[in-house]
Amino acid sequence: MNWTFYQWLMHNRWRSDPIGDLARDVYLDRKWNKKAANIVEVQLCLPATACKDAVKALRAAWKEYDREDWKPPHRRRETPYEGSTPEENRLQLKTELKKMLGKEVIEENHEWIS
């Protein structure tokens, strides 16, 4: 799955850096070209009145997006543990809860009780 720059930017909205600030601004900008496919098209999305910091953040964001080793996160698997049956998933979850809580847990009516 290939993400557009806009999708990548929206995925990074919660960052607490200039790229996150840019992403939040883009999120509110209804005129932003969501299909911009290269740095020239992306830069054209910025308003002419954009400050230098916004341009700098945009270039940094594009550089990060355009890295060859970056991959989008995988979609959530249907089961928490790949290749496992629902019963194996329950046992695995029970084991992890026991490690976290330091005591045995039981499942009653689909709710975990410690």
Write a structural description.
The protein is mainly alpha-helical and 114 residues long. The protein folds into 2 domains: 5-65, no CATH class; 80-114, no CATH class. 48% of the residues lie in helices and 5% in strands. It is built from 5 helices and 2 strands. The protein has helices spanning 5-11, 18-28, 39-45, 52-65, 86-101; strands at 106-108, 111-113. A two-stranded antiparallel ribbon has the order 1-2. The longest helix has 16 residues, at 86-101. It is elongated, with a radius of gyration of 21 Å.
- Note the gap between the termini: 41 Å
Strand order of the largest sheet: 1-2
Rounded to an integer in angstroms, the radius of gyration calculated over CA atoms is 21 Å
In round numbers, the mean pLDDT is 79
Number of strands: 2
Sequence of secondary-structure elements: HHHHHEE
Instruction: Assign the structural class, choosing from mainly alpha, mainly beta, alpha/beta, alpha+beta, or little secondary structure.
Output: mainly alpha
The residue ranges in which pLDDT falls below 50 over 5 or more consecutive positions are none
- In DSSP terms (H or I, runs of 4 or more residues), the helix count works out at 5
Q: How would a textbook summarize the main sheet?
A: 2 strands, antiparallel
Number of domains: 2
Molecular shape: elongated
